[in-house]
Design brief:
3 domains, eleven-stranded mixed beta sheet, five-stranded mixed beta sheet, Fumarylacetoacetase_C_sf, hydrolase, Fumarylacetoacetate hydrolase, domain 2, metal-binding, single chain, 374 residues, Fumarylacetoacetate hydrolase
Amino acid sequence: MAGEIKDILPGDFASGHFIGRAQGPDGPCVIAIRGGRLFDLTQDVASISGAVARRIFTGGRDIGSVEDGLPDGWSLLSPVDLQCIKASGVTFALSAIERVIEERARGDAATAAKIRASLEEKVGAGIRSVVPGSHEAAELKAVLIAEGMWSQYLEVAIGPDAEIFSKSPVLSSVGHGALIGVRSDSSWNNPEPEVVLVCDAHGEVVGVTLGNDVNLRDFEGRSALLLSKAKDNTASCALGPFIRLFDDGFTMDDVRQANVDLLIEGPEGYRLEGTNVMAQISRDPLDLVSQAQSEHHYPDGFVLFCGTLFAPTQDRDQPGAGFTHKIGDIVTISSRRIGTLRNEVTTSRDAPAWTFGIAEFARNLAARGLIDRI
């Protein structure tokens, strides 16, 4: 991982401000990047959630230049720790259509191909043209119900309430370079390249990172009540590489205009590319934050996946079968001003077990004399 840091940062990293986590010899460390150099902030603040809450992004021990990479023996971790990991779904018109397809195909990829064209023709134009929760959206809903075209996914696509769900437990996400997992009993699944907003306990967004909201289309397609099994599995939530903090040169408007590119490279030579265009999102990111916060309390803050435009339909093995992962796929998610997140696919069964939970994190910090700096 040393020497790779520069390659996964955006081109303008020297003028930006970043924060993240790395595994050091004694345990997880909070690191910052500014002015092209790496700093260890752990003696000042021992968690990312604490750094966000108290806005501790400066200071720290200089540990070298970005060009030289992390110190020997260090490796990147997911850039979040004690924050709740939330996600929003069906926030783009295309993803809404694909979820309806999954539902009607009952999670069968071959059947989905037969449904896709007619559904796009009948529903696509409508959901692209209305503002969710508006009077026009309500009128469209009435028409679709009358035509027998309504779906629970269209409800969250154009209705007043966004789909917000818990993606992954605290401390369970993996970072750049780690293995990502899909369930071994899934036959139709895909990555979801997304912008992830990083929020404090009050819902103020302090920056963004990239995420892979790994999804099992067959499970969720059989029943929306299987959402947790489709979304929350070992190594199924990747975040990184760093959190880019908002400043005068990088703001929420840059997020609203961001493109998130996806590249899948299969072990058999398969290649798939796609782009998540944030400008096409149906709900503004700050509206999603407001809906995620709602009447909840997140004392250690939260992060929020914004959803994706990308839903791969390109056939991989046989005509009409669509896309699904193979073990050994390399998934690269990148955005020009946020960075690059790259992971290799395995099964959740075979991925490294998640053992470093909240209790172990607290014990580690206590042994290092850092528990009061969390």
